[in-house]
Amino acid sequence: MTTLAFADRVQETTTTVGTGDYTLLGAVTGFQTFNAGIGVGPTFDYAVTDGTNWEVGRSVLSAPTTLSRTTILASSNGGAAVNWPAGTKNIWQDISAQQELNANLLTATLNNGTLTANAPALQVAQTWNNAAVYFDAVVVNPTNTASQLNGPFYGSTMFDVQVGGASKFAVYPNGIGRSSDRSPTYAVESLGGVSFFDTGGTGRHNAQYSGATGATRWALESGGIFCWGATTADDSKDSGIGRVAAGVTEANNGTKGSYTGSAFGAGSQIVSQLPAASATIKGARSCVTDSTVAASGNFGAIVAGTGTNFVPVYCDGTNWRIG
Q1: How many CA atoms does the CB half-sphere of 301 hold within 13 Å?
Q2: Could you list the residue range(s) of the whole structural domain that residue 303 is in?
Q3: Which one is predicted more confidently, 293 or 154?
Q4: CA 111: distance to chain centroid?
Q5: Is residue 192 included in any domain, yes or no?
């Protein structure tokens, strides 16, 4: 939908003949010129008549005193440009029926003041009925010539939800959304039961999964550690994987460099469930519960199943071996 310019008391005269652009001759007494009210460039609707013929259109000023006949919306000439005879015509900035129709396609309801029953502060109702079109219910499109931007999470906002004057969720010009509350109640985003939220400047970005049997919190913290815990309580982490150095990873107890109570479990299965040995998984490790021999004295032996021994195994690229 074209965004139209408006101005109060815009009306001039013209003596243009034919179907060409209108040459404007100056404001009618008590009115202002198109150039003073709207200026060169913006699109607006206009109406013109000589008292008999008439025309409504959509136009721009191509010069301070030239009004282009860009689009004819309606006219006494069957909707085509009027072939004007000699004489003076009045021409003014108009709100066309087409513009009113476009405005009525969107119904907006505003509810202000003190409420005692539920009523959204703003409700926009539209009917979308074209499967080939991507529709936008609300578009916020400022031109950021200059504004205060202090880092990725502070400064000017595109959208700010507040409760009692305190910001709870804001969207910034760089597209980042941020909650100012540590609680997952004010999640930044929720996808498939996973809520993502920031913990308010602690260097941690959290994610929480809520399932039928409970919830778990994961956190990606500064310093290169991914940690998690069994509950949604803040700082409930008890397990983690961290970066020690380039290419070196540690398993820890949720705190980088702390290993008390931590262990790396390789899991266990029976031999027939192991993936096929190949160069692709060379170095992979696991445990099996049905080795035919014990680990003691058999390090490096090819593992065979259907036994009763629990042994660690590794892939050498060709076989799974005990060790």
Answers
A1: 13
A2: 271-322
A3: 293
A4: 26
A5: no
